[in-house]
Backbone:
């Protein structure tokens, strides 16, 4: 079937929404919002108010302002999550560099024998070289001005400039499970499998944030492993949906507690939810009584 729809100007978009039953309090304010975000970005936040997902007719008493409020809630939520992921990424980077360099030297990242999967090792090696060679960091440029061999700088320089995705693949593909377990325990986790799972989920979530995608009520394809019990304050994993955002927020909160005691991540999250009381937290996977879980008290 050929696509025949024509572009609509702002007044036409507003009229289309009104015809579908959306209440728009002020046309000028609505146009101002459409000018700084595309209609299809906004449509993600209109969808929860739709009565019919095919015709896009809205439920009674659906307001344009509610979608705008939800959009700005999601924007602030992304910023909060990004900061928590950044803290985790930097901590993982530091621990991986230190423990494996002390055990295997300055250039262990080039040793194929340390990795489980040869294809992943090769892919990572190519990606590492690409990321290092295009880096503009002073310490990388100064290294290449002075040294020509080996092809990449030592690990403590190289791994500082690779992406979180590459870092995650390297960590998950390493053979030395004893050393990986040691790193996991520094995050207050009993096994490296949990850290690998949380790391993969954090990378996927960060990619979502980087593209400014809807975050709050998304169903995530990667599910973090949720232990029934941990040494630190934790949740009742049996009532937690691993595909929803709440599960990942729990993992990030736990990691924050392990690396930055006294952090204000949970306080910021609670304040954000309090400032947007109309947000349906059950759509995010929050169970009833979540505030009383040891992790969130």
Residues:
């Amino acid at each position: 079937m050929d696509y025949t729809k024509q572009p609509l100007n702002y007044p036409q978009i507003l009229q289309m929404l009104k015809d579908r039953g959306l209440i728009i309090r002020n046309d000028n304010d609505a146009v101002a919002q459409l000018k700084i975000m595309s209609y299809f970005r906004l449509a993600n936040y209109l969808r929860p108010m739709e009565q019919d997902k095919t015709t896009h007719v809205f439920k009674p008493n659906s307001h344009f302002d509610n979608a705008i409020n939800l959009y700005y809630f999601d924007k602030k939520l992304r910023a909060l999550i990004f900061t928590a992921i950044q803290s985790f990424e930097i901590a993982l980077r530091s621990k991986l560099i230190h423990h494996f360099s002390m055990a295997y030297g300055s250039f262990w990242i080039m040793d194929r024998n340390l990795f489980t999967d040869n294809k992943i090792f090769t892919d990572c090696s190519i990606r590492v070289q690409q990321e290092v060679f295009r880096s503009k960091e002073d310490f990388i440029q100064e290294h290449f001005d002075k040294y020509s061999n080996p092809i990449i700088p030592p690990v403590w320089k190289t791994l500082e400039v690779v992406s979180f995705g590459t870092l995650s693949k390297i960590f998950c593909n390493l053979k030395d499970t004893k050393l990986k377990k040691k790193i996991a325990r520094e995050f207050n986790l009993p096994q490296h499998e949990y850290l690998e799972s949380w790391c993969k989920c954090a990378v996927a979530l960060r990619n979502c944030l980087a593209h400014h995608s809807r975050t709050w009520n998304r169903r995530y394809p990667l599910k973090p492993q949720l232990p029934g019990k941990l040494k630190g304050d934790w949740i009742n994993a049996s009532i937690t949906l691993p595909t929803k955002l709440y599960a990942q927020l729990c993992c990030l909160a736990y990691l924050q507690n392990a690396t930055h005691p006294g952090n204000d991540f949970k306080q910021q999250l609670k304040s954000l939810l309090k400032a947007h009381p109309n947000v349906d937290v059950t759509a995010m996977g929050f169970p009833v009584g979540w505030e009383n879980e040891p992790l969130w008290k």
User: Anything to note?
Assistant: The CA atoms of residues 56 and 271 lie 32 Å apart.
